[in-house]
Batch of 3 targets.
Target 1
Amino acid sequence: MYFCDIVKPRERNYLKQVKTWHQSRDINDKACHASNYSEMMSEREAAKYPFIQAGVKLVEGLNLQLDDLTDPNYRKVLDRAAERVTEAIIQGEVSAKLAEPLTELLSYPIAVMYVTLIGEQFLSRRFALAEAVRSYNLLQQEYEDKIMQIAEDEFSWNIVKDPEYIDGTQHNLKLRFSDYLRSASGFHEPKWKLVNRKMEDGFVSLTGIEAARLIQVEVDNWVKERVSTPSKFSLPQEIQSRVDAVRKVFEENRSKLGGSRLPEEIINEAFPPCMIYCLEGLLSGRRASHMERFGLTSFLVNIGMPIDQMVSFYTDVTDFDESLTRYQIEHIAGLKGNRTRYTPPTCATLRTHGICRNMDSICKTVSHPLSYYRKKAWRIQRREKEKAKETQAETSNTTKQE
Amino acid sequence: MEEEWGSPKFVAEQFQRWYAQHSHTIPAPIELPQREFAFLNFFGRGMHRHIKLPTLQELQRYLRQNAPAHSYHSSGYYDDPTADMTRKGWLGADLVFDIDADHFELPCQKVHDKWWCRNCDEQGTGHLPEICKCGKAQFTTETWICEKCLQAAKHETHKLLDILIQDFGVHPDELITNFSGNRGYHVHVHNNDFKTLNQHARREIVDYIMAIGLEPEFQGFSQRNRGTRSTLAMGGWRGRTGRALYDYISEAKPEEIKKLKLGRKASSNIINNKEQVLETLMERHPSNITPLIDPKSLKTVLNEALGLQASEIDTVVTTDIHRLIRLPNTLHGKTGWQVQTIPYGALPDYDPLVKSVVMSGSPVKLEFKRAPKIQLKGEGYGPYNEEEVTLPMEAALFYLCKKGARVKNE
Ligand code: SF4
Ligand SMILES: [Zn+2]
Ligand SMILES: [Zn+2]
């Protein structure tokens, strides 16, 4: 991981070399770059797409050390890096500032460093996505050949050019289904479902824009991998101050971005239809499939039903063995075994296994039973508040009249 | 002491005899050293699993020495197949499919399957109801097999193989088709592009094969779409959707269509203008169907029709990347039949009730509880009801494994 190479304080053998390299290229002095056309091209490419190998090598080659970054020459880079993270927090999308390719290029690894120093999972995910969206925006402006080349070289896709018209729209590319699924199986819109694509002989037909959208997922994963481990080390003042500033922006926006939380108390009326189906099955003693039991249990665990209550509920309505039931529930809750708390299956999974039943209007707007619950709970609570207000208003009215 | 129903001791001896002679004919699954094995014996002491049999000799010796009632191997490949689940080190997994007539609704099940409510005295034949009259759903069942169920399972297997080969581009050499030894077929795909797919990707494959989430508008059936040619001859679901619709409409009786409660115009077009609808499908782009059948009705019709092209696979087996599946060419302890690998191309003529009945021996006198009839190796047996019959070994073993009888000791 080249990011470590930058931040790991090492011997400073190369410092001199780096300094000369940098001084010889004032970032704004374009004439200087033109001297080496291909290098300039790859600099520009790397500035656009931080994940391309050539760019990664270029930065690695600089072998920058932490202390080097305090050099005033780098101020712009440090600022742009802070800006990248800030944009990710506020807009959910990093802009592309390609006028100064070197600044843009170097600011990426520094931004990664800021994110790992702040060490918040939520920020890491948001940053990865925002960087991926940046790449997607840039890719959309490229020729299909370029998109193909990036897909092949950087992500080893099996992709070919083979134009055809499908229902009047030109689809120029064909992608091996396994590469397609790696990215698209996380999408929710029907048009991305494999069954709704034209596939023959193991290849899925795509437009260039669609290919770019799938690359976005690869970039998202690539960045995520690099920002997922928090790091900690002491920083020179110039850098620390910027990390602090970014952290402040993050803290200010955190609650806004976090989405609404699950309600504190369990609201039965907010259960999605699939979970009601599982519950009813359980109550009638129908032999529930593993998926039904897992789905319901993980759902109940996640909305905060206490384990004791679940155990007695399950053993009351079924002939389940108490200790076995407890073990299974504790396993799903992450108290046993590999200690991960399981989240319930997505709507897509429940649908595959025939558990998504009696969909209603809220269902059409969600892709996860927990989002359904959150949404409906919120509606119910709002309705109750309104009612409470009304009755309050009424009572105050009556008091006035008296 | 009274003999137990199913006479497990007797059956176990027959299995031993068979494995002693035939274990050397059982081939190893590919990438043997990375597989986990698991076995069940006849005396119900739980599953022996996390077993590693890294060479063909060890595998065959194990089978010979233990003559298991049920033998399984993992669809997954592991660094250490003997470790517990979290430490195994998953390297990949074959894509596996299970087609089991038990999941289908078939008329023949009314004849050979029975259920009893354990809560009240309700009983019935065929598929279980979701819930009993008494509001509970605790049933005891007795399920049997006949050539009709097996035929239905074979048909689903054909559709599956067709989709895998045509749409996914799987080479026939990368496919292994097995008779499951009971009510269906298993298909294993060995191909590097499938091997490392995660559960989400496998779920998408299941949805593809079962046509779950298929939207007509993405198959050309929308007025917004443009195109000139019919999709009927096309590959993938574009072609399949058109063909399913064509076949369904051409076969459907007016009463069936009426039951679907379609829009008035759609219903009348399908019943009275059948020829025009079929011709449009055959000759023109599917966007020309929407004026004849409105989108909502089309969805309803497709709900019925897509099953003609989709394959009814078990959704859990295929999405599970740690699945244990039957070891091909071993014996199935619930029938006494062989889990048999069927060479590609031989499926259409394959008759499990002849081919997989591999055990023979001297006739056995049985005492029957209750058992329906079956055809084995061309010979008809049963039905039997509380009677004593002497049967050839192959038939005796089947009824014993199904626990419908026990050996009568003189
Ligand atoms: S759409 Fe999702 S939440 Fe609604 S019933 Fe189906 S699985 Fe449950
Ligand atoms: Zn009952
Ligand atoms: Zn049958």
Target 2
Amino acid sequence: MKTIEELNKIRAEKRIELDLRKNTNADTREKHILVCQGTGCTSSKSPQILENFKKIIEEKGIQNVRVIKTGCFGLCAKGPIVIIRPEDTFYAMVTPDDCEEIIQSHIVEGKVVERLLCKDIDGTKVTKLDDLTFYKKQKRIALKNCGVINPEDIDEYIAFDGYRALARVLVEMNSDEVIETIEKSGLRGRGGAGFPTGKKWRATRDAKGDKKYVVCNADEGDPGAFMDRSILEGDPHAVLEAMEIAGYAVGAEKGYIYVRAEYPIAVHRLQIAIDQAREYGILGKNIFGTNFSFDIEIRLGAGAFVCGEETALLESIEGRRGQPRVKPPYPAQSGLWGCPTLINNVETYANIAQIILKGADWYSSIGTATSKGTKVFALGGNVNNVGLVEVPMGTTLREIVFDIGGGIPNGREFKAAQTGGPSGGCIPKEHLDTPIDYESLKEIGSMMGSGGLIVMDDTKCMVCLAKFYLQFTVSESCGKCTPCRIGTKRMLEILERLCSGEGEEYDIYRLEKLAANIKKASICGLGQSAPNPVISTMKYFREEFRQHAIEKECKAMECKALSRIEIDEDQCKACGLCQRNCPVNAIEGEGREKRHINQDKCIKCMTCIRSCPFHAIG
Amino acid sequence: MSKMCECVEKKIREEVREIMKPYKQEKDNLIQILNEIQEKYGYIPKAAQMEVSEYLGVPMAEIYGVITFYARFTLEPKGKYNVSVCLGTACFVKGSQAILDRLKERLKLEEGKTSEDGKFSIDTTRCVGACGIAPVFTVNDEVYGHATVKKLDEVLDELEKNEK
Ligand SMILES: Cc1cc2nc3c(=O)[nH]c(=O)nc-3n(C[C@H](O)[C@H](O)[C@H](O)COP(=O)(O)O)c2cc1C
Ligand code: SF4
Ligand code: SF4
Ligand code: FES
Ligand code: FES
């Protein structure tokens, strides 16, 4: 059991030892090799890189070098990533075979390994992480420890002010003061709806009930979004600390983290964090010797999107099918086993300790009039720097896609971006300069959502995109409400007809009518928002829907039935590359003959389009 | 599926009892326990369901309802090679549908099904966390990034060759 004095002592000592993590001029002879062990890098062999470094250092008997595992650095597209501190050298796309050279050249001889450096947007090689354009426009609050600390070592968390906010709250503040601070900060829920966090805490605190619960929503259902996962993998203690602060504020002694079983690394690190915190007495009875007690358990989800909805999530924790409850009563009044329950999202929690330590005024000075602080986005799709970015609210989509994201690959054009996942909408080119916050996104027919941000280039068909999201909602509807269960299926059928060339003009109106009905008559957010991706794509790309319905043409060539892939004879240089890449040998012609495509064999996989160096195929 | 012989059933029941030991006999542990069983067997055998039903006092029908509700739980064993294509948005935008189509065509199997010889099964997932190298497919735990139809063909060729 640790006292606050002991906590302070660990912080002071560890902070000196770890100064080199944040200070490039640190006065030390040590070097730390940080190896990303986020899910992205892990799937391209970063665990082996970590092992190789350790082995080589031991074999060579090198002193003063430590190999550290960290969470995601954000630039996943360039992974696996290795960073050497204190000099902050950033190595990209490292393979296990590169370890030997990095150790010999960088560590032993002091020479940077040029070939592993990362190229910036303008093509120049960049040595330091902080010099990459990708990082320059970011502001890291929720992600401040990700990629800096070893998430499996509580002392490293403590070194960078970990559990200091909890200590302050328990000793210096009462429940009212905590709630006031959160209210004043302007923090709003990051799980999608943007409900004011302080207000929710107050409602839960004021609700009648002997027993109360605090829940963390780590279900992250938006496919292709990984903000919450990265926080849990890179800085799990930040979530535990915030849940404890919330428990103190609302009067709860028990917390649950509901996390997807599909996130094994996150679950593993959370469990380690919980065990270490218990060992230190930071979780458990009489924390820091006060009369506040709090404990946390993990509950695993099992792959149902609707369980991200708060009342369905409660059903699932209680061991049932995750079907949403009718609201009101809200969880703040009647949640887990009928007790008042506070539910917040992972990223919402990740801001709490910072707000307590740096103050509500500091936090509310960042962002726009109605949306304070920062937002983490998982940037994906047709953009160069796929990865995790955290920006102040009010940053424009253009800055995110073109500055931080490095623009669109393969010389293609930006067509649209989708935020809010299956509940959100698309944002076309003409709105690229909209400052992103909860209100402005709603105004243009999309929503903030939890942070998935998918970029699409001009080879993407918007009818297909709408169909994709509808397929998702159809398979994820829990079936409780008829309009959601049947209505979304009808919409999907229409979209399938349009994509296969069997649609008609009237289908567009049918879609609109169904959309309106489903929105009105579903009980939970899944059904209420399921038509959004269709409504917004129809709003901005109506012409494309018409082309599918009337002219039976898909200009983006994604709908196979509506497109033919052909080689432009004038541009073909007969290099034969397309032929070698075609998986079904559909391309005919030999030697110096112009190539042509046998339409009966072609499966329209588009491989040839991508492989032609002369852009002769389209 | 063929009827399970009694000794296998007995073994599964014993193993499941072992899995459940750390859990209190409370209903809210149902999903946790099913997750562990799914992890161990790759599906949830009938014998395991019966054992869980007795231990937690939850009727079989309700357990069946829970299993079919959650996508992660399956009632059929997966193939020796479970090939799974990511249909998360990041992968979809980069063309994972074409990869899934090709996979179904080559193995002559539908999504969620296992081949008769038990060698292959097809699955889809929603974001395996490797969006940075999208599109992605996996064979058991191995992740293949920057996937193309061609790469899938190569991987399948290799697996089929190993099985000959
Ligand atoms: C269909 C549906 C799915 C949702 N999925 C998630 C999710 O994956 N993660 C999340 O934090 N919130 C999700 N939410 C929002 C939650 O219901 C809830 O508003 C949120 O957890 C509250 O936390 P916050 O105020 O901190 O955002 C979802 C809502 C709906 C309707
Ligand atoms: S709206 Fe859809 S998902 Fe939500 S409760 Fe109704 S049927 Fe279930
Ligand atoms: S790759 Fe392009 S230039 Fe080369 S043969 Fe094919 S179509 Fe002609
Ligand atoms: S997972 Fe390694 S940088 Fe994101
Ligand atoms: S969407 Fe496929 S890995 Fe994320």
Target 3
Amino acid sequence: MPCPLGKRNRLNPGFRAWGSRMGVVLALLATGLALACLCPQFLSVANLTNVVRQVAINGILAVGVTLVLLTGGVDLSLGSVVALSGVVAAHLAHPGEYPLAVPVLAGVLAGAACGGLNGLVVTRGRVPPFIATLGMMTAARGVALVLSGGRPVSNMGPALTRLAGDWARVPVPALVLAAVALGAAWMLRNTRQGRYLYAVGGNEQAARAAGIGVRGVKFLAYALCGALAGLAGVVLAARITTGQPNAGVAYELDPIAAVVIGGTSLAGGVGGVGGTLLGVLLMGVIGNGLDLLNVSSYYQQIVKGLIIVGAVWFDRQRRSVERE
Amino acid sequence: MILAAKEVSKAFGGAQALRGVSFELAAGEVHALMGENGAGKSTLVKILAGLHAPDAGEVLVRGRPVRLRGPHEALRNGIAMIHQELMPVPGLSVAENLLLGREPRGRLPGTVDRRALRREAVRLLGLLDADLPVDAPMGTLSVAGMQTVEIARALGAAAAAVIMDEPTAALSGREVAALFRVIAALKARGVGIIYITHKMDEVFRVADRITVLRDGCLVRTAPAGELDESRLIALMVGRELSGWRHLATQRPRADAGEPLLVVRGLSRGGAFRDVSFEIRRGEVVGLAGLMGAGRSEVAAALFGLAPAEAGEIRVRGAAVRVRRPSDAMRLGIGMVTEDRRGYGLVPQMAVWQNITLAALPQLCPGPLLRRTAERAAAGEAAARYGIKADGAGQAVRLLSGGNQQKVVIARTLLAQPEIVILDEPTRGIDIGAKAEVHALIAALAAQGRAVLLISSEMPELLRLSDRLLVMRQGGLVAELDPLTVTQEEVLSYAMPVRKA
Ligand SMILES: Nc1ncnc2c1ncn2[C@@H]1O[C@H](COP(=O)(O)OP(=O)(O)OP(=O)(O)O)[C@@H](O)[C@H]1O
Ligand SMILES: [Mg+2]
């Protein structure tokens, strides 16, 4: 008897998405609980504020790279784009020159341009994303060095540096992350392009055969990812009050790790922003906890590496059981 | 008794796929397993082949209970399986795919004797009378070609029991005949065969015994001689099914209108050359031919999946260029592709999202999705085609093969194409759904659309088409009247002429 696609289905997808993230949620709760017991100051408002401030940049980058990973691609140029857009923004942010919107927009656009170029090389040029964005990683860093003459761009006006401050006791970078994440989640859920991102990542040939403009969809993903990297670059520049051409080295790795921990498949087609945020938070809380516990930064690296692999390993074990 | 299942049950999440089913396979017997899409046939044989562990019950090999922990252990126990969903490694050659995991060893440790490999591959394909390029990459084969390789692979395993899950879904008469010769030879050697199919004529040709499943329950096991087609169908669907009798009747014809699609001198590389035909409003044009004749390639060119290199396509009188599927869809061309894994489905996506994927621009004009409209449309399509799923939110890869096929059909037709290309639309769907699809094709024509039908099932082509075109080795060789022509005549045109 074919069961008609009735009511219970309406709940199903939501539950499933939630269930697949349960592992990360549990890990987050367990870590939080352990830290709360080990060091009481973990739960203090000051410390928690600190955590969200610290994860903001990683989080903005992770949201952007989620879009690219969903299409089955990857973006290795994030760190360099962060540096480039920071330099661009800092150049336009000397006191009394332009209104705040100018450096911010310029930084974002610089990032979008890099991302768009990545997208073009991947779609039109058919260069594998790994190589295309690796090239961008080197080139964008070069452009940042050229623009700045290799020196930090300083003398930043207070309008921009305030971006790294607080607003109503909440760190502005965290607010930016929240807005970005909400926007991206909304786009993935409610727009046609969002649906197409999943389709392209899930089966590119089938997406093409369904009349979807695969190139356009991928281009959009890379361009948006670049724009968000640009935004992260502006936020970073505001925080360190200079445009640093050498900033952001290896910044691409943590976001990718966070996205995968959050359940987005490296093969594309599965995942979302919610999981990514959980992944970002988990990594942030662990980093914060190790700091509070005075673990030396050498050991921190070891622990972090183990946790990244462990989280994904645990997740995949659980999933293969589910499939059976 | 070579192989048996005793009271096996299996649930996937909330869905009970099998409930206490017992099944036995004797040596030298062909035991057919029948049932509607989603009845649990593949699940049962996957348990016998060690791909799923049963929740309850046991598997017996030669009377001994065994726990098979994977296809390797099944093979070691002499059980080989031909899978319903093809699993080729596209980059490896046909020969390498055929002997994957059983490569003949070379003289140095860890090496492969490539000449022996090739020889063995040629031998196995020869058993099936298949004319396939052993050195070509697997990815270049048609679905029928891949299916043939899959069959030959299982034959090479020298097993005591061979499980065939819809081996002929994409094969045409000649290849099926070759398979049946092989089955006869295996039987004579005492090999037991489990045979799953939705093709009624095949069952009564090969089966010694028939077991019918319905909704995961065993309905009956009987010698084939005790059943006939209508009794068997009644057992499968659990009621008198009226629609299937349409399957034996000719589609009534109406006067065709003006030409909607005109093709002149279409050619592409080694695939097809100088193909010209037209389809009028209200017409169903059948395309017959053997595996590799170029039928699917022509269809792929019309839909923009693999554009033609030369020739002209006219839609509603205007010359058009179709470079990609989105061009074709804008012109009102829709296609059900033969390869549901490759070009059909987005496996991880929900059933309803797969159904609406191609029709999103129509369902949701503007950039935003309208989920209510989408779900309504998907729900309606699912009910209409009898898609059996554990909720519309289930990932489409978890559906049974036939239900996946229904999703592909639903998706294509939801976009309301005026020119409909159907490449093996009834591949692997059960008899009720097949009658449904046939009625649907007739309805499409009655609404004044143009249909191009490709099928490896000759009766289907003859009954549904207004005109029948025959392709052979990349060229169009005949146009026949389905009312007067016989299957044998069609075949005589389709047979390749071997150059001396
Ligand atoms: N891995 C899985 N996860 C969840 N549900 C599954 C899985 N495999 C099969 N099912 C469900 O179990 C039921 C039986 O499926 P099965 O593939 O055995 O059907 P079938 O008889 O082979 O059908 P068909 O003729 O379409 O191939 C279906 O409802 C299907 O959706
Ligand atoms: Mg099946």
